[in-house]
Amino acid sequence: MPPTSTVNLDQLYPKLVHLLLDPVLVVDESGIIVFISDACEQVFGYRPAEMRGTPILDYLHPDDLERTLAAARRVMAGAPHIDFENRYVHKDGNTITILWSARWLEEERVRIAVARDVTALRRSDQTRDALYRISQSAHAADSLSALCEEIHRVIGALFSTNDLYLAFYDDKKEVVSYPYFSTDREQAWVDGPLQANSAMAEVIRTGQALLARSNPDRPGLGRTGPVEHQAASWLGVPLESRGRILGAVVVESLSSAEHYSTEDRDLLEFVATQLATAVERKRVEEDLRFLAHHDPLTGLTNRSLFYDRLETALRSARRSGEVLALLYLDLDGFKQINDSKGHELGDLMLREVARRLEANTREADTVARMGGDEFTVLLTGLTGPSSAQNTLLKLREALAAPMLLCGESFAMRASIGLALYPRDGESAEQLLRTADAGMYAMKRQRLNHDWGGTDSSGTTE
Fold first, then answer.
1. In this predicted model, what pLDDT tens digit does every residue of 224-271 receive, in sequence order?
2. Burial status of residue 190 (CB atoms within 10 A of its CB: 0-12, 13-18, 19 or more)
3. In this structure, which CATH number among 3.10.350.10, 3.30.70.270, 3.40.50.300, 1.20.1440.60 belongs to the domain 303-450?
4. Count of CA atoms in the C-beta half-sphere (13 A) of 313
5. Is pLDDT of 107 > 70?
6. According to CATH, where is 3.30.70.270 located in the chain?
7. In whole angstroms, what is the distance from residue 365 CA to residue 393 CA?
8. Greatest C-alpha distance within the chain
9. Distance from C-alpha of 375 to C-alpha of 437, rounded to nearest angstrom
10. Is the peptide bond before 422 cis (omega within 30 degrees of 0)?
11. Pick among 3.30.450.20, 3.40.190.10, 2.60.40.1400, 3.40.50.1980: CATH of 12-117
């Protein structure tokens, strides 16, 4: 006959509970922790004595309060939970994800639950999904702006209570631009020089990820200097591709319950590696599209895109009955200046002409370089012929102002022809012929008037 065991199981059970790697909790009906096993310190960071007698909700992530209360009510109503997940705030300030198995004991009027830390598992799942979505968006997004919006959604799933800033850096001009940012704080972000003595500048200049503190006066830029453990409310990671720093991605915490850790830094670095590749690919695609439709010297709309916009504007004008105007202009004496002063100066002059044309037209108008020193301007939504005439005079005056190029001053004149729809034609071909003819008529008139007088460079013969 086998010997009878003398083990006192009632005394052994508490010791067994404390050996479990998952914390065991007993919570009364008012939400107070009346028992918690030793494993709580490994998961929550607190010793059992610190948590015992305190409300379980004191450790809950505030964003999960309502759903957690609803789950607790279901358990207390007799529906056990074996797969409920929510987030808590670790003693070090980091957010952890807990998978619960819980049951209500009616006789004792307590909830007994086992908590499993699934933070690493969920973070791994989120990272995998994030990388897949970034890769998918890099191919599916039709613009860099659309890609940035999707990136915000992806990173928002990883860092849920944060502002996001995506910064691009032009290392030649030392200028930072912000193609995308999301914040509730009142701050008008504008492109400009890299802000010295900021965490953003340190990330871009060193190419190293950085945990730092937020700067309330400079949202998104962060403070420089050492940051104490558990106090990092700003996290910046460089966007690097093929050894070149493209910019940085920054998350900034607005919640006192959430700070960033080295694990968060490593995660964002991992995402940023994929993000930089996707951003560079999308920027190259947009650059190629731009070059296909714009003049490489001046950046203006090229002949092909101009014709497309003219046809589109004509279709719209036919439906609405609005007036549109076409200006065709040529620079008087440009060839002589280009030949005598050199093509480099000629290119500078064409760029300056393009700048002045764009500066003196509306955003809705289209300025194009047709080739050589010939330009067109498409004016839409006009109130009448006088509006077009006023723009013509404004452009002629703007172009006549002296240009200081390569240490010399040049007074450039432009011959400009004007055609109005529908007065001067109802097709693109008719309008272009009328405007072109008007431009050459003005040029002939000026040549006859200036013969033997002053040339277009402003020097007297």
1. 887 765 678 899 999 988 888 888 989 888 776 677 888 888 888 887
2. exposed
3. 3.30.70.270
4. 27
5. yes
6. 303-450
7. 16
8. 135
9. 14
10. yes
11. 3.30.450.20
Q: Which two tokens stand for residue 309?
A: 């916009």
Per-residue pLDDT, averaged over 418-445, amounts to 91
Rounded to whole angstroms, how far apart are CA atoms 73 and 266? 38
Range(s) within the chain of domains with CATH label 3.30.450.20: 12-117
Q: Inter-axis angle of helices 343-359 and 334-341, to 10 degrees?
A: 140
Highest mean pLDDT among 11-20, 382-391, 416-425: 416-425
* Predicted local distance difference test score (pLDDT) of residue 287: 75
Question: In the predicted model, what is the mean pLDDT of residues 327-333?
Answer: 90
Give mean pLDDT, residues 427-434. Answer: 93
| pLDDT tops 60 at residue 453 | no
> pTM higher than 0.70 for the full model?
no
Residues in CB range of 134: below 8 A, 6 or more apart: 150, 151, 154, 271, 274, 275, 278
| Residue at 49: amino acid letter | A
Residue 156 has what DSSP assignment? H
- Are the C-beta atoms of residues 340 and 454 closer than 8 Å to each other? no
Q: pLDDT class for 461, splitting at 50, 70, 90?
A: very low
For the chain, report the end-to-end CA distance as a whole number of angstroms: 132
- In 10 A of CB 267, how many CB atoms? 22
pLDDT digits (tens, 9 = 90+) for 136-162: 776 777 777 777 778 778 877 777 657
Report percent pLDDT > 70 for the chain: 90
Q: Which residues contact 287 (CB under 8 A, 6 or more apart)?
A: none
Mean pLDDT of 300-315: 92
Cα separation, 286 vs 147, in Å, equals 12
Q: Is the pLDDT of residue 1 over 80?
A: no
Structure tokens at 162: 């944060």
R_g (Cα) of the chain, nearest Å:
34
CATH 3.30.450.40 domain extents, the chain: 122-291
Both tokens of 159, joined, read 């860092």
CA 144 to chain centre: 8
Integer Cα distance of 381 and 321 in angstroms: 10
Crossing angle of the two packed helices 144-158 and 119-140, in degrees rounded to 10: 170
Q: Indicate the CATH number for domain 122-291.
A: 3.30.450.40
Pick 456 or 405 by higher pLDDT: 405
- Under DSSP, is residue 329 helix (H, G, I), strand (E, B) or coil? strand
Contact (Cβ atoms closer than 8 angstroms) between residue 413 and residue 442: no
